[in-house]
């Protein structure tokens, strides 16, 4: 059987309030790193649904996406000491911006999130050695440069939610 290569689809959010940006500090094999609220697209959800879920799980804030900031492709190659093997992963990341809503202090943040931090753009630029990926800074810069694409740029066919809806003609 043929094996097909596919990138891992992820979503992320650039979250701004009063000129500061909400990042998460998460534990990875290389230590504590900084990232946007981000995560993988789950089966049966749209990209917008995924970013709403990920922001809530990682920051305990409600989130309403209003625009797509950008679509990013990146590759990670490195050794995974937990699994004892080398990894070669490609990520296709959809980054959104929008309105940060209510904070739910009773929520426990997802593992491996240690805490959230509000940082200025200069503080984020000064901490690139701690970024989980180069997409953290690139997403911020694109956001600050005014990159905004309508949400309807991304279409989710009804088969995403109901596989029986897929038609072949």
TrEMBL record:
PROSITE patterns: NUDIX. Signal peptide: none annotated. GO terms for molecular function: nucleoside diphosphate phosphatase activity; ribonucleoside triphosphate phosphatase activity; thiamine diphosphate phosphatase activity. The keyword Magnesium applies. Residues 6-141 form the Nudix hydrolase domain. It holds the Pfam family NUDIX. The keyword Hydrolase applies. Keywords: Hydrolase, Magnesium. Its cofactor is Mg(2+). SUPFAM superfamilies: Nudix. Belongs to the Nudix hydrolase family. NudJ subfamily. Monomer. This is Phosphatase NudJ. It comes from Brachymonas denitrificans DSM 15123. The gene is nudJ.
